[in-house]
Write a structure and sequence with these properties.
Elements (H helix, E strand, L loop, with lengths): L7 E7 L3 E8 L5 E7 L5 H15 L7 E8 L1 H7 L6 E6 L5 H4 L24 E4 L2 E2 L5 E3 L3 H14 L3 E4 L9 H13 L5 E3 H4 L5 H31 L6 E4 L5 E3 H6 L7 H17 L4 E6 L4 E6 L7 E4 L2 E4 L34
Parallel strand pairs: 1-4, 4-11, 5-6, 5-9, 9-10
Antiparallel strand pairs: 1-2, 2-3, 7-8, 11-12, 13-14, 15-16
């Protein structure tokens, strides 16, 4: 007797300790769950173990899976643990210190013992080239291609794994960045290159550069992970396509996530925030505090819904969101803008923001 065909949506959340699997029957709304240990050396193993456990426990076939979405902390943990790729930065001459200078806004503005975070790319790998574009997109100083080749030679010598390119006003005129990418492809064709005009084509120099740098550091780590998981799902007969939770609380296709892993910096907790808001709304609560405590980091999101900032802080690294409808901050670090003198002060060893 033929088994009645059922179609399920499957969600897999991989944290530092556990991997959770949730299946939802598209017809009946029935919810099925499974839980396994995460495999830190290769989180895709824990992901597939969880899926296998769920399929076996509920007598399902791989073909029953109609949609697959994955939330993961791999991008978050890569940043927090300092395990991003060794990367180089190309910017305009005179602006190599943009990551060092950053913003006035920081976790404790009036803390005289504040430890400034180390930039994701060290100064000796942040290099300026001769080129300048004006704010309206006009060319003020043409690109000196020899200066680009000189920087490329340095990066080869230093064995960088990826390169970020963030020129002034590239959101108005991306052509100089694209030409730099072409030159780098000629000299070091195996080196991934990330352009700010592709990742964050918006004004404000520091967040655009920082976002590009974060993406560059994640690319050689997160991209292969997603590709590996795709291959395993396909080999198991799950051909629904892979989608990833983005920091905004929405989803992105795997092919986008592989190119722009910066969109996954808050992939893990994003679904939890959306779920908490969903439950609270149906329970009659307008304000709530949601806690997400995992094996490697914890987050809190509380209060009323407020307009989102266009930047989120991730252990004092800033990445510009391409969405505007998410939580105001990631919750990994607070900020002090200086609007309240004496506010958010801390003493050494007391109430320090990590």
């Amino acid at each position: 007797m033929n088994r009645e065909k059922r179609r399920f949506r499957i969600g897999v959340d991989t944290g530092g300790t556990f991997t959770d699997v949730v299946l939802v029957d598209e017809t009946s709304g029935e919810i099925l769950v499974a839980k396994v240990a995460t495999v830190p050396a290769d989180p895709s193993v824990g992901c597939m173990n969880g899926i296998e456990k769920a399929l076996a426990a509920y007598d399902l076939d791989p073909g029953d899976i109609a949609f697959t979405v994955h939330g993961t902390t791999i991008a978050t943990n890569t940043i927090i643990e300092g395990k991003g790729a060794k990367a180089g930065l190309i910017t305009c001459e005179g602006f190599r210190d943009v990551l060092e200078i950053a913003y006035q806004t920081r976790p404790s503005l009036y803390d005289i013992f504040y430890d400034k975070p180390t930039p994701l790319i060290p100064r000796y790998l942040s290099r300026g080239v001769t080129q300048r574009t004006g704010p309206d997109g006009e060319t003020v100083v043409p690109l000196d291609e020899d200066s680009v080749r000189s920087v490329a030679d340095l990066f080869l010598k230093e064995q960088v794994e990826a390169v970020a390119v963030a020129l002034l006003h590239a959101y108005k005129n991306p052509e100089p960045e694209r030409r730099i990418a072409e030159i780098l492809a000629e000299i070091c064709p195996e080196l991934p290159v990330v352009l700010s005009s592709d990742i964050s084509p918006e004004y404000r120099e520091y967040p655009r550069t920082s976002t590009t740098v974060v993406n560059t550091g994640l690319l050689p780590r997160v991209g292969p992970y997603i590709a590996n998981l795709e291959e395993k799902l396909e080999a198991r007969g799950i051909r629904s396509g892979l989608h990833l939770m983005s920091s905004s609380g929405g989803i992105i296709a795997a092919n986008i996530a592989k190119r722009q892993p910066v969109q996954m910096v808050e992939s893990g907790p994003a679904a939890g925030v959306i779920g908490a808001a969903f439950v609270a709304a149906r329970s009659g609560y307008e304000n709530l505090l949601a806690l997400d405590i995992g094996g490697k980091n914890g987050k809190a999101c509380g209060g009323q819904r407020r307009p989102a900032e266009n930047c989120r802080t991730v252990r004092s690294r800033r990445e510009r969101s391409r969405e505007r409808d998410g939580p105001e901050r990631s919750g990994l670090s607070g900020t002090d803008t200086g609007d309240q003198p004496g506010g958010n002060r801390s003493r050494r060893g007391i109430d320090r923001t990590p």
